[in-house]
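Please describe the entry underneath.
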Amino acid sequence: GALLAWTVCGIAQGDGSVWDFAESLFNPGSAPPTAAPPPTTLTHQGRRTARPMAARPTRPVPLTADADLVAAFEVLGQKWTGIILHTLATRPARYGELSTAIARISTKMLADRLRELVASGLVTHARLPPGPATYTLTADGRALLPALEQIRCWSRHRTRPRHSPGKAAPVSAPALPEATYARTVLGSGPGLALAHGAGAGSSIAGTYGPILDDLAAHHTVVGVDYPGSGDTPRSTTPLSLDDLADQLVAGAVAEGLETFAVSGYSLGGPVAIRAAARHPERVTALVLTATFPYRDNRLALALPVWRKLAESGDRTLLAEYLTMMALGADALEAMPDEQLRQAVGFTAAGVADGTPEQAELAPRADVRDDLPGIQAPTLVISTTQDRFTSTRLHRRLADTLPHSRLVELPTGHLPMVERPDEWRRLITDFLARHGA
């Protein structure tokens, strides 16, 4: 009855859509109506009124994350990644140039992002003769530039306030400890802090003795002796690179030097680098000689032997090992037998009491993360006949330090013995050029 009343009303009103709807009810195979008519009923006065029908629930469209975008943003979604790629669009660049160009990024963040971009194949890191190692966009990296340009244009036309491009607030330097290490102070003029090596002759006098007076002729020289060297008591706990670096800086400041250059030899190289990283406001220049940024396989083999010989108490055996390893081939083979015996005896007499602790620290000294952030001009002196620290490590330093220059000195690990005048001249000429 209700259906008949509804149908009759529809006919009376000339509503053909009612027929369509009825057709779909009784003939399921027929096409459904394009729009269902509003349900109606008859009032006692015979007039048609609309009766609301409950809306059918609609099924939501399934949501899925696009797999290609997921893969892309695993790389591109990291903070600063797009900025680095867009900056490299201009030309290949060294780490230091990128750090300067992208002012607000931290040095560690930049190093991490560059490693990720190299690993993902968007950037390469290689030496471009005759210059230093640089970062360069690959073909895949360049393929992203149009998209990055679109994003840049979108950001330019946004109405919300944008971040200031200024440098991030500087991180305050660590507080200096009380200067407790024994120290040598000589001369007058611009400040020069000295960080010595480890083992035999491991003191300021033992490392820099042959050139100390010449350095003090134009500089106020301050050098500290590590625990177990010189007049500094031996440590009862393992040494820390941070502690050595802070004591070096504290010693110089205690002698009235607000800013100063730092020269680091052998183990003193990582000490000098860490001092510049922790106290950049004080270090004006670096000189790094016969040193290393981390333990490579050669050092991994050499240092444990050195430490075990030091712990054995057999100083003569230790001195023979150090003489063989430390002298360059030219100097070693030029010695007659008697002079060689004298050299071994001299080395044995100069072995520091703290050699075991210093030899234990050396393989733990890793300053690779510090290098990209060093802004001080740096001279890397590569001792080309060195059996302890390889020229490969010297080049690694020069390639990674942003403002560095590498020079070669044809000696073993002991330039102060083999070519002291040339070594001193390299140091003083570099410092004079940089006003340090």
Summary: The first strand starts at residue 40 and ends at 42. Confidence is low (pLDDT under 50) at residues 1-28, 30-37, 39-50, 161-170. Residues 199 and 355 are 5 Å apart (CA to CA). DSSP finds 19 helices and eleven strands in the chain.
